[in-house]
Amino acid sequence: MKRLSTFFAAFFMLVSVSMAQQTDYWDGSVTPFSTDNNAGESAENPILINSGAQLAYLAQQVNDINDPNLYDGKFFKLTTDIDLDGNEWTPIGWHLTNAYNRHFGGSFDGNGHIISNLVISKDILIPAASGTGTSNISSYALFGAVQGSERGARYIKNLGIESGSIKGTGSVAAFVAWGAGVTIAQCYNKASIDGTSYVGGIAAYCVSPSVDVINCYNMGAVKITANATSNRAVGGIMGQTTTAWITNCYNFGDVSVNGSIPANTWGGITGTFQTTRQPINSYYATSSVANGNSYGTAITEANMLAPDFILTINNDQDPVKWVADADMINYGLPILNWEVNGITSVNRAEADVNILGSVAPNPVTGVSCIPVSMVVTGKVNLSLYNTFGQLVALVYDGVLEAGNHVFTVNAADYQSGIYFCRLITVDGEKTQRFVIK
Fold this sequence. Notes:
Layout: H1 4-8, E1 23-25, E2 47-49, H2 52-62, E3 75-78, E4 81-83, E5 94-97, E6 100-102, E7 107-116, E8 118-120, E9 125-127, E10 134-136, E11 139-140, E12 143-147, E13 154-161, E14 164-167, E15 171-172, E16 176-180, E17 182-189, E18 192-195, E19 198-200, E20 203-206, E21 212-214, E22 217-218, E23 222-227, E24 233-235, E25 238-241, E26 245-247, E27 250-251, E28 255-260, E29 266-267, E30 283-285, E31 297-299, H3 301-305, H4 308-314, E32 322-323, E33 335-336, H5 337-341, E34 355-356, E35 367-374, E36 378-386, E37 391-400, E38 403-410, E39 417-425, E40 428-436
Parallel strand pairs: 1-4, 2-3, 3-7, 4-7, 7-13, 8-14, 11-15, 12-16, 13-17, 14-18, 16-20, 17-21, 17-22, 18-23, 19-24, 20-25, 21-26, 22-27, 23-28, 24-29, 27-30, 30-31
Antiparallel strand pairs: 5-6, 9-10, 32-33, 34-35, 35-38, 36-37, 36-39, 39-40
């Protein structure tokens, strides 16, 4: 299917990572966070997550089968961008049955930060409830399972998943695979999502108490692999729900079915919903889904890029949650207010200089793109270096005209390992780190 987003895909990581903000790169380790001075008791005094290792510690602690209520009612806040570096991620919380689960019972404020290269590629096994053998957790996302006691009791907010691939046997999403009593607000996803039961760009499977998905958008491809006549659903924002509200959201990512499920259980916004809870002011690109239901509102890509779509998606909210993509960090589609004004936004003082975007996809397993945006025509040197600082390849050395350009790196041409892509222009140097597997 030829789409405007096919062109955009080459620039998927163009400038959305901060040039001013230090990113923490996770090496797979686990480090405890501090709960000193009653941290976590309120949103004003949260437990601070300062690294990928501390985020992994949160997952380790919540998933402990010996302490099912750890961190219930606690508050967490992210303090930095995190690059998970393609290391295998274990979801925070999991759900197997209503009687056998480990739900995250806290609230998480992304604080205007992003998580990059989130990868889940294999099923995760836990001891079976019977005590004999193992079981698949069947809930895959950054947060595998989140439980609140009533509507809005918990939240995940102000967070972007910038890149990655999340795949599992069961319910799969970017933020919450199984949810109840949680609000997901001001979040976006650009990772690819692939599951077999209930699959969504933001959330997968939602039950009572009600789940609210508010002011979120999805750009990642969302796919379900199944052959079933029931108990399967896929949507650009949410997979399955009989309780949730979806409000002021949009989906631009492809939604597809590998196999066969009923047409009314897959769509651009949601696979299913309760009759009285039709998605509110939520839109999907007409080209994002070939067949399926019409829940939400289908509009053309051109209309999503039109200036007045900002007014539409804001829906008279005060203060506004959506702003125009003036710096083209999201290809001209609406972005969340914190992406401009938040910690991870492009520094306005540097917005008019030449930009090296991140290698995507990263890790590189085939061919990945290196986007370069030139404000003015100028001399450019684009080179690859290894961890010893040795020049590995000269990608380009010459003059580039003003505008967007894409170069490629092919994993087959290099040994596995960590590399650095360095752009040198009259504005100075910029470097991006990536992994070849």
